[in-house]
Amino acid sequence: MAALLCGTKRKKQVSDLQEEGKHAINAPLIPSSAELHPEDTLLEENAERTMLDPTSREDAKLKDLQRVLIDWVNNELEEERIIVKDLEEDLYDGQVLQKLFEKLSGRKLNVAEVTQSEIGQKQKLQTVLEAVNELIQHHGWSTEWSVDLIHSKNLVAIISLLVGLAVHFQAAVRLPEHVSVQVLVVKKKDGVLHATHVTKELTTTTELMMGRFERDAFDTLLDHAPDKLNIVKKSLITFVNKHLNKLNLEVTELETQFADGVYLVLLMGLLENYFVPLYNFYLTPENFEQKVHNVSFAFELMQDGGLKKPKARPEDVVNLNLKSTLRVLYNLFTNYKNRE
Q1: Contact 318, 259 (CB under 8 A)
Q2: What are the residues whose beta carbons fall under 8 Å from the beta carbon of 181, sequence distance 6 or more?
Q3: What is the rounded CA–CA span in Å between residue 101 and residue 90?
Q4: Measured distance CA(319)–CA(188) in Å, rounded
Q5: 10 Å Cβ neighbour count for 191?
Q6: Above pLDDT 90, what percent of the chain?
Q7: How far apart are CA 255 and CA 218, in angstroms?
């Protein structure tokens, strides 16, 4: 009996040793920081799966980018009474993406409104992504998303898609710059899983992203004719002071004095000949959000006055972006230059 027990014990030790040996061989191939789910290991030969490395998930810039995108989507879909709280859980089935694309493009997609089955969800995603890709690829974007990636709640793919939409439609948001994440690529070869890390860039600079599709006269002035730019700035200063002087206000620096939005709001009241109630804006804004509120409110007043929505974003004016400020003021100049 004792011999039988010893034999059984030895077999278990051998078995444990074999398992330990297997683990020692395979362990270096799978970084310990990555949490592989069962479906990640069930790969066909030569197939691969990508996933966000857990360490990147806690990155402050990535969290900030997610927050900005969620706020943007919710703002765009406010009339639909859609509230997104989690990009992975709320966008994977195509419903929100469909509504977002339709709102941004003004184009109705031929898809079922509600789809519960996986097949129906993927069919909807296919239609939405085909429409998105048709627009974005036309401008040279490489698509970093697919039906399977979005439906499997791949955060990198979902964020890449939203960033692409935000940039293409010139969304009035400031995307955090230089957001990169570590992506784990797992591939099965000869029955063994091999894992490598790849750095994925989700955003670059605001200039590269938002200036990607459109350059205007101010880009040319800044790049090639700084002497002429100074003439334009003097003309704009003369124009704004002609009206702001009525309130005993004077502008000497376009770059800084419009950044908090106060002069923009007051200028619109003067140009349209009405008093702007002080409770509608912050006369002495104390932080970034209050300044953005002021500039956004000024933009609303411009649209109320029949002007098109400014191409510049409120955040860029607040951040002292000269081209953005010039675009806004030049738009006012062309529409109100003869106004006394």
Answers
A1: yes
A2: 52, 53, 56, 59, 62, 156, 199, 200, 202
A3: 15
A4: 48
A5: 6
A6: 22
A7: 14
Distances (CA, A) of 97 to 76, 87, 94, 114, 183: 11, 11, 5, 13, 23
152 three-class SS = coil
Tokens of 55: 């360490």
Q: Residue 139 is which amino acid?
A: H
Run of H or E residues at 50: strand 48-52
The pTM for the full model equals 0.55
List residues bridging with 185 in a β-sheet.
Answer: 50, 196
Half-sphere exposure of 97 (CA within 13 A, CB side): 36
CA distance readout (Å), 156 to 36, 146, 308: 16, 11, 34
* Token duo for residue 168: 């293409």
Q: Look up residue 150 and give its two tokens.
A: 């979005």
Report the interhelical angle of 226-244 vs 322-336 (nearest 10°). 60
How does pLDDT run across 208-261, given as a tens digit for each residue?
A: 666 544 455 566 666 666 677 788 888 899 999 999 999 999 999 988 999 999
Say how far apart CA 207 and CA 259 lie, in whole Å: 18
Q: Say whether pLDDT at 1 is over 70.
A: no
DSSP state of 82: -
